[in-house]
Fold:
Amino acid sequence: MSRPMEEDTNGKTEEEEFNTGPLSVLMMSVKNNTQVLINCRNNRKLLGRVRAFDRHCNMVLENVREMWTEVPKTGKGKKKALPVNRDRFISKMFLREEIPSLTMSLKSSLAEMGERGRGIPKICRCGEAVVMNTSKTVKNPGRLFHSCPFGRDGDWYHTFKWTDVSMYEELEDLIDKVDNLEGASITLQKGVNTCEAEIETLTMETRVCEAVVEKEIREFKIQLRSLKNMVVFALVMLFFFKFMY
Structure:
């Protein structure tokens, strides 16, 4: 009797891992055909689409871009070379969890990192932070630009954007925001004016109602006074006839 209950519990636990646990990112990637960024133990990164996986993080990936940084070797006595960013494209890849150099630590999906947009970029599509540099080329000497460590001018994938273009877009967006605020302010002012007009109308109607009520009260007082006089006259006549007869 206990074995079916254990199997049912294990099934629910595995389902929770795929739907709400860390594996849910892989599940969403398979369902929505989105990309995921995977950090390797050897400081390499893989950006690709997950086609299949299991609970042990064995994965079948497609359209994979592998990215890494390496330092070129130099001879003795020579100055140490600067790190160079490299990448390569792999159409299909199978990752095995038991291979130490390829044991993955899932970082985040591409949808959570954001796409290229207007203004100054912050994060590249590959997950790297965008930094500002100065161009040293003959064509654009001293021109500032924001780029991913893997990016370059004309790269369709990694972020590369001239800073003056980004600033121009920032100013355009700021002007649009100011225009929107001015439009909202005008609309709000119109609403305030409408409310003030309605208040004035209600005030006039209140004054008219007060005047009508005051008139009716005066007429009621006059009628009450006339009725009082008639009652007094009737009492006087009653006493008069009583004493006379």
Q: What stands out?
A: The two ends are 119 Å apart (CA to CA). The helical segments are 2-19, 24-32, 110-113, 163-244. Residues 114-215 form one domain.
